[in-house]
Each structure stands twice: as structure tokens, then as C-alpha cells.
From TrEMBL:
Keywords: Signal
Name of the featured protein: DUF4882 domain-containing protein
Organism field: Acinetobacter guillouiae NIPH 991
InterPro entries tied to this protein: DUF4882
Domain of life: Bacteria
Leader sequence residues: 1-21
Keyword Signal appears in the UniProt entry: yes
Length: 259
């Protein structure tokens, strides 16, 4: 009887583990950036969530993070990329704390995610999500507090990098922004959700992604000693756990691990 009970418990444990499989891809690594030697590791990097405090500084502080085992060469993923399912739809989300009010004087606050999608021949496609709040920004619409989303794709034949999509809007007046991205591996289409607004498929990549990675950055400057934002904790989070998704995705969407 004891053996039977043990067997039942073990089988239930296996079923439970399979039913709640987690998809994790940490952002606890740091790669020095030749183009930005001042960049440093985020003060707090725990799993897929990054955080820092706004400090009193005149010089810009830049934080950067990537996967703990990521290795790159000539913008290609050499090691540490996550292998994507090669069929169906996969999704993930980005949560970002922002200052929704337009900053003045020399204050500036910027955050970004760079999503790298690489095909079997190491042709790289990218999705860039950038939040920028600064009075010094120069934009054709004179936006000083904006979100910019770009989709770029490498032509596998010519190796030319082509811009496929551009989204520029004022940052909505909420302190946490949410982006949902879904990739249809059957058609190589990219879908986009911005703060619950599903824009549908907005671009088609020029080849099917095989590997995935993500890089995140934050930068700020000009916050004086009496600034109301001083010591405010800001965070950026990469969400792959389907149970934490805030958006509704096309039927059958899985996480980037295929769960």
C-alpha cells in the first residue's frame, strides 16, 4: 500500500510539473559595450527583472543587461540564445516603469529593450523598444516624452538590413508601460500590443528566426538633489511566464519556450 501511495504521489508530481512548466531566460549578465564604455551592470538584476534608483548626478549613468551566458560576435549570437519553436505562435511581454510627466531642464530618463532574432544562417532581425523622456529630444512632431518601436530584418540574400516598421507615440500617462509581442513562426509575422491595444500583425520578417536573445538598457541624468524623482526605484521586466501575461493573444499562442 505504501509503495502504491508513493507511486501515485510521484505521478501527480510529474503531472504538476509538466502542467506548470516555467519558461525562464534571465537578464543577469553584462557584456561591455565598445560603443558605450560607460555602461555598467544594473544595480539589481534578479531573474528577468532589472531595477535601479534615480540618483543625483549631472553625468549620465547607463546600465545594461543581457542573458547570463550570452556571447556575441559581429552582432550574431554565438552562445546563450534561446532556441525558438519552429511552428505556431509564441509571445512574451515587456513591463517598463517610466516617468509619465514630461521632464524639464537637463533631466532625462531613457529605457530600452533590444530583441534579437537570428535565423539558422545567423541573419539577425531585431525589434527595438525605446522609452525616452528628455526636453532635449528633437523629433518631427516635437515629442519630448515618447515610445519608439522599430522592427528591422536582414535580407538573407543581400545581407541588407531593412526597416519594416516604425511606431512613434507620446508615452501614455501611466507609470508602468506594457508591450506584448507575438511571433507567428508559420508566416514569420510580428504582432504588437501596446498597453492593451492590439495592433495585429505589423511586419513580416525576411527569414524564420531560430534563436532569440534580449538586451536591456537604462540611462538617466540631470536629477538635482531636491528632485521629487530622486531615489525613485525604476524597473524593467521581461515576462515569459504565460500566467503573468496581461494581454490576450491569438488562439494557441505559447511562450517562447513552446509551453
Amino acid at each position: 500500500m505504501k509503495k502504491l501511495k508513493l507511486a501515485v504521489l510521484l505521478s501527480l508530481s510529474i503531472i504538476s510539473t509538466q502542467g506548470f512548466a516555467l519558461c525562464r531566460y534571465d537578464l543577469e549578465g553584462f557584456l561591455p559595450e565598445p560603443a558605450n564604455p560607460a555602461a555598467q551592470k544594473f544595480p539589481t538584476a534578479s531573474g528577468q527583472k532589472l531595477s535601479y534608483k534615480i540618483l543625483n548626478t549631472t553625468n549620465q549613468l547607463v546600465y545594461s543587461a543581457n542573458h547570463s551566458s550570452l556571447k556575441m560576435m559581429n552582432d550574431a549570437i554565438i552562445e546563450g540564445g534561446l532556441t525558438l519553436p519552429q511552428s505556431g505562435i509564441v509571445g512574451f511581454e515587456l513591463n517598463t516603469d517610466v516617468i509619465p510627466t514630461q521632464l524639464t531642464n537637463t533631466r532625462s530618463d531613457a529605457k530600452s529593450f533590444g530583441i534579437l532574432l537570428q535565423d539558422k544562417n545567423k541573419n539577425v532581425h531585431s525589434i527595438l523598444v525605446i522609452y525616452n523622456n528628455s526636453s532635449s529630444l528633437t523629433d518631427q512632431d516635437n515629442l519630448k516624452n515618447m515610445v519608439l518601436i522599430l522592427v528591422m530584418s536582414t535580407d538573407p540574400d543581400t545581407k541588407e538590413v531593412k526597416g519594416l516598421y516604425s511606431y512613434i507615440k507620446p508615452i501614455e500617462r501611466v507609470s508602468q508601460q506594457n508591450i506584448g509581442i507575438y511571433l507567428n513562426q508559420n508566416s514569420t509575422q510580428i504582432g504588437l500590443i501596446v498597453n492593451k491595444n492590439n495592433l495585429g500583425y505589423i511586419a513580416t520578417l525576411l527569414s524564420k528566426p531560430k534563436d532569440f536573445s534580449i538586451v536591456s538598457e537604462a540611462a538617466f541624468a540631470g536629477f538635482e538633489a531636491n528632485s521629487p524623482y530622486l531615489n525613485k526605484t525604476m524597473s524593467l521586466e521581461f515576462v515569459t511566464d504565460k500566467s503573468k501575461f496581461k494581454n490576450t493573444y491569438p488562439t494557441g499562442t505559447k511562450d517562447i519556450c513552446g509551453n
